[in-house]
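Dear colleague,

Thank you for sharing your sequence with our group. We've completed the structure prediction you requested, and as agreed, I am returning the results in plain text so they can be pasted directly into your records. Please verify that the sequence below matches your submission; if there's any discrepancy, let me know and we will rerun it promptly.
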Amino acid sequence: MGAKRTVVLASGRGSNFQAVLQGIREGSVRDCAIVGLVTDRPNTGAEELARDFNAAAGKQGAADAFAKIEIHSFDFKSFPNRDTYDRLLLDTLKKLNPDLILTLGYMRLLAPQLVQNFAGRIINIHPSLLPAFPGMHSARQAYEYGVKIAGATVHFVDEGVDTGAIIDQAAVDVPDDVDAVGLADLILVQEHRILTRAVDSFCQDRLRLDQNKRKVSTLS
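Please find the predicted structure tokens below.
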């Protein structure tokens, strides 16, 4: 079993991206080769992480073809329309030829054609216990609603908004004295944990979707 060619889509600081890279280095994420990063705006933290990774690989003289991350930094605001951006993103992903796509803090809905093209190969991390609080600002939604238990979900991506089959979840007790920012930080710890576990399981060919594409089982 060879390493899975993995591409990351990101829009921000790259905390979950960093968790996956660290998992690869430490061996908790096996058979995963990050071959590409695509961002929808320039100068993100995720892009900086990828450049640091490439610089470190260069200093080590890594001969592995998977040792370098190909970086594609697009500026969504510079495109004349959404369709133009979506076509470029799809073409870029096809050229990178991923076995797995990770949407890690990527703040754009994926076009239906892209989702269909890579069905069963796109994984997202979301800061709520889905199906509660889908979409943007989930931790704030949970905080304002006054929940006592929040959490994180890692799931396959379908054509809906955070509606894909759930791979794993982790609950977080909400302290009485926490604010929305503090709650997001508590959830992020669990995001890192279940994301790296899910990526490892996928790359080890241990995830199975049922016939209805709704339930995921993890093989031992």
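Summary note from our side: Residues 180-203 form the longest helix (24 residues).

Kind regards,
the structure core
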